[in-house]
Amino acid sequence: MREFSDEELERYSRHIILEDVGIEGQEKILNAKVLVIGAGGLGSPVALYLAAAGVGEIGIVDGDLVDLSNLQRQVIHTTAEVGVPKVLSAKAKMEAINPNVKVTVYQTMLDASNILEIVEHYDFIIDGTDNFAAKFLINDACVIANKPYSHGGILRFGGQTMTIKPHESACYACVFDSPPPTNAIPTCSSAGILGAVAGMLGTIQAAEALKYIVGAGEPLFNRLLSFDAKTMNFRNINFKKNPKCRVCSGEGITKLRDYEAVVCEMKK
Amino acid sequence: MQITINGEIKEVNTGLNITELLVVENVEMPEMVSIQLNDTFLKQDEYAETILKEGDVLNFLYFMGGGA
After folding, report:
1. Distance in angstroms (rounded) separating the CA atoms of residues B65 and A262
2. Theoretical Cys-Cys bridge with A202: which of A45, A100, A145, B6, CB 3.0 to 4.6 Å?
3. Which of A130, A158, A177 sits opposite B34 (nearest CB)?
4. In a domain, A260, yes or no
5. Domain that includes residue A82, residue range
6. Minimal Cα distance from A44: which residue of B?
7. ipTM of the complex, rounded to two decimals
8. What is the pLDDT of residues A143-192, one digit of tens each?
9. Is A38–B32 a contact, with Cβ atoms under 8 angstroms apart?
């Protein structure tokens, strides 16, 4: 057992007194390594809560600069940081909240050539990306590298998420198979997203990561949590691993490839 | 006959297939939905040949690609 300093005992006291976390759970959090892919609408709350929780090492991946139009929902960035690389803006806030956390930044876009070597270093991965090419690539990489991860998707007033333990629970491709055809998807920027919905889904993903790390409760394995913030209806859709899955079944993939980049708009 | 879609019980014509159901349900972009029928996910090329039965339980899961 690790020695907790007085500062740590106080900082993490609400976790330490929490049944199912406790001092053992907090120690697991302090020893955990989590990769957050995307420092945007989902990545912002995830990165903030994981840093606050004391996750020992957090990697954050994003190739973009902070844009004024991001600030309506990407709460880790500030007005003064417009034009700054998102990963640097995020790192500054995470370290301000909790200087005990080691933050590693990857100012790049992930593709089939670099994702495996980055993912390999971490215990749990968060998908906070904004396109299907990245979402399917992350799924493929986590299946190949056998890394548990949280899938997240948002659109307008809606969000959905599932947690995946490759080869044990259903993967993203068990449910959605392949990216939708590019000609089926009009432009992304016209779809819009209620800023707070990104926060709702991102905090669910952060909670799933922490639950997984401490081994508490029931992760969103083999089910998709889907909500509509307009009605505030939350729904769980249950399923099993698809024995014929293109990605994670016995005849699944063994090598990565890049998917064609597509954007996120849709009609009903 | 009665079937359940996304937790709601609906009355539909007997003998309806999935392609026809998507029209009845006003799904404008079938490419953007993954359909689960009684625990199994259907491929799009199975829609026309899949005839619905009384009591079938379906879930329409929409692709959501946003996150930034």
Report:
1. 9
2. A45
3. A177
4. no
5. 32-238
6. B68
7. 0.92
8. 999 999 999 999 999 999 999 999 999 999 999 999 988 766 644 556 89
9. no
Q: Which residues of A touch B63 (CB under 8 A)?
A: 132, 153, 176, 180, 266
More confident residue, B2 or A260: B2
Both tokens of A66, joined, read 């902070």
Pick from B28, B36, B67: which is nearest to A42 by CB?
Answer: B67
- How would you class A146 by CB atoms within 10 Å of its CB: exposed for 0-12, middle for 13-18, buried for 19 or more? exposed
Average pLDDT of span A1-20: 96
Is residue A250 assigned to a domain? no
CATH of the domain at A129: 3.40.50.720
- A117, two tokens: 């070597």
Q: What pTM does this model have?
A: 0.94
Instruction: For residue A49, tell me if it sits in a domain.
Output: yes
E runs forming strands in chain A? 33-37, 57-61, 102-106, 124-127, 149-155, 158-164, 223-228, 233-238
Query: What domains appear along chain B, each with residue ranges and CATH number?
Result: 2-62 (3.10.20.30)
- Our count of domains for chain A comes to 1
